[in-house]
């Protein structure tokens, strides 16, 4: 459980870089409150011009919150879901795929929410074969950012970071057709 007022977060620095071109992040979150600011869920940055992060954002509109997967090393790539994520009573499952070698531009960053692939807006896609920051030998933070510190407020469970593989939501669970 992360309390944004206490600035709580987890860190991990890999001893050496892994595969910075392909990775999958999967986690469950339950929000404690709705914020009018970005809330960093997963972040790795070395400076304002070299970062990769997954954030919740209110999109300058208090009626919707969206999930953003952002990559910025020299040029920015940002994909944003069209989903409204304002339920503070239930859990959301997210799967975010970063796969820059993919020949299809729309498949280089993919977001699943509760098992469904999301349509994305305001997207500027990652260039083919671009290295991201995730899986670099720099500090990674869960629950906050390093340069831009805006902490996550809520519960986080079953956080997985898979280096070198682009895995869809079916690898992390399924929906029982009898109970949904």
Report on the architecture of this protein.
With 180 residues, the protein is mainly beta. It is 0% helix and 43% strand. The chain is built from no helices and twelve strands. The strands form two sheets. The protein has a seven-stranded antiparallel β-sheet, with no helix packed on it. Strands 9-8-7-2-12 form a five-stranded antiparallel β-sheet, with no helix packed on it. A hairpin with a 2-residue loop joins strand 8 (109-113) and strand 9. The chain starts with 9 loop residues before the first strand and ends in a 17-residue tail after the last strand.
Gist?
This protein is mainly β and 180 residues long.
The residue ranges in which pLDDT falls below 50 over 5 or more consecutive positions are none
- Helix- and strand-based class? mainly beta
Largest sheet: 7 strands, antiparallel
Strand segment tally: 12
Beta content? 35-45%
Strand ordering within the main sheet = 1-11-3-4-5-6-10
Oligomer: single chain
The separation of the N and C termini measures 26 Å
The general outline is globular
**What radius of gyration results from the CA coordinates?**
15 Å
The average pLDDT value, as a whole number, equals: 83
